[in-house]
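Team,

Forwarding the record for the chain on the shared tracking sheet. I've put the sequence and predicted structure together so nobody has to dig through attachments.
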Amino acid sequence: MSDTANPGSGPSPADSPITVALIDDNRLVREGLTALLSRVPDVRVIPGEPGSSQWSSEGWTLDVILLDLGLDNRGSVRVAQAVVQEFPGTRVIVMDLLPSEEDMLEFVAVGVSGFVMKDAALDDLLMTIRAVAAGEDVLPRPLVNTLFADIAKELHSSVGPSVSSAVRLTSREREVLDLIGDGMSNKAIGKALHISTHTVKSHLRNIMEKLNLHSRLQLAVYQHGEETAT
């Protein structure tokens, strides 16, 4: 990752739009998406070089990266992993026409926050961007039922039984994890457990650290994997 632009740092003006960077080798796709998103009042597109991790952030916090799955030499996974590890405040959405199970598993494992089809309607793309920027994780609707169990099983096995059995979650952390697995938002979890949203976020950070996971999606599939294994 370049030191010339830090996508996870810098001041954001109050009530600022969602700042989005596009990483796609296809110039037509990149310019077309930029033109479409530039017309949306709550989205600001940050210019970047195709297939790179350098952006002209101009002091803005970079909220979301739209990342083409098909960068040359399988560079997409490396970029996604570097962003997740180095800039935890920036979330990654992977774009593809139809990601395979193997692709989904690989990107979930490195901590991306969502997937969107390249032939999705603009409203669906915006819904995904807004949801991910708000802290949610998004899988493409047609793939959820067919892939979720396999992703859960694979992620659970990758964590390994020795790590899983060694992790000790508190009873409250276990309750939060179970509700994450049910797809509930932070606000809904707080209401269900009669705790503040801030406390929910604190529990999530602790759970992620204990399990060495990086996103709500990873937590959800891990929790489903535990159910499958028991």
